[in-house]
Structure formats: C-alpha cells, structure tokens
Amino acid sequence: MTTESIYRYAVPIRVVLVLAYVAGLIGLQLPAVAGYFKALTALNLLATLAVLLYFHTDWQPSFYFYVALAVLTGFFVEVLGVHTGAVFGGPYAYGTGLGPKIWGVPPVIGVNWLLLTYCFGSLADRLSLPVYMKAILAATGMVLLDFLIEPVAIRLDFWTWFGGPIPLQNYLGWWLVALVLLSVWYGLPFRKENRVAGLIISLQAFFFAGHNLLYYL
Q: Mind telling me which residue stretches traverse the membrane in this protein (predicted)?
C-alpha cells in the first residue's frame, strides 16, 4: 500500500479515533454502562496501536525489532514490579480492567509501553535537538502523562497500590524504563514520523484529564 493510499483514509480514521475516546470518557462515567466500557479498554488500546501502525511508513527489520523490544520489555518490567516491588517502588497489583493476565500482568500493558514510547518518540523527533535531549523530553512527557493516568487507573481497577500513596519511585521507574527504550528508538535506522502520533497523545491526555476532572467535580 502506498503512502498516498494510506493517507487517503486519514480523516475518517481520525474521526473514529476521536469518537472512540470521547465515548470511553462518557461511558466509563455512567454507572449503567461503565462495566461494558471497562471491558473494552484493552481492545481500545489494541485498536489505537493498530491505527498508529497503519500510519507507520518505514517497515524495516529494525522497526520490527523495536516493536518486539518495547512490548516484551514493558511486560517483563511490569512482571518484575508486581512480584518484587523493586522497579516502581512499592507493592501493587493489576485488577480486571485491562483484561486477562499472565504472571499477574495483562499482556496488553506491553502494548501500552510500545504505544507511548512510539508516540512521544515521534513527537520529540520533530524538534531540532540532539538525540539525547529528544529521548529525555519524550521520557519526561510519558511521566507527565502518568501523573494523569495513575488516579484514573486506580479508580477503574486497572491496578492498585498497596500500603500508602503512589510512591515517587513509580515515576522515576517510568522515566528510566522509558528513557532506555527511547534511546534504542532513536538509535535504530527507521523513519520516526507518524501523522497520528500527536493526536493519540492528545486523546490520551484528554481522556485521563477528563476523568480526573469529573472525579473531583
């Protein structure tokens, strides 16, 4: 499929993506249907990744390597975190909100690490900065988004922290894992631009900021 034929469907795909996130924000706030929308959370993440990859334009072996690396690293880091508390600074466990689990972790969490590192990496790549600064900025952006994600994830039973508030090491752990993955991302020889990366980050920020606002109203 040529780049021109891919971009031909950009507008309707963007519209569907926006509507999906708006519907999710509303549906998860309505008790009568919240359970149905919660069950669709993992599917929404997979669909969002599918849209992102649809607009990817450089399918080199190095990109396949990054996809596998990000998914597997994200998943196994979370397995380590759940079973030892060593990575993110405290005991936590995944609930039912993100679907089936292997070794206590939903496999879709690896998809989330791929999705976020790709999108933030693509956005930061547009800046005229040294590569190390792009990696630092992208990893920092992921942590800022996590500040919005954490309260919502706990309320929606994505995961639960035990024994106190969310530890600061959680955010440091996020930043360090993201920085490692993004350093690899920038070091691999494939094109980083993607037309929907900015939209996806905007929708994720809208989704989690919207939930936080509605919870406190």
A: 12-30, 36-56, 63-82, 102-124, 131-152, 172-189, 196-216
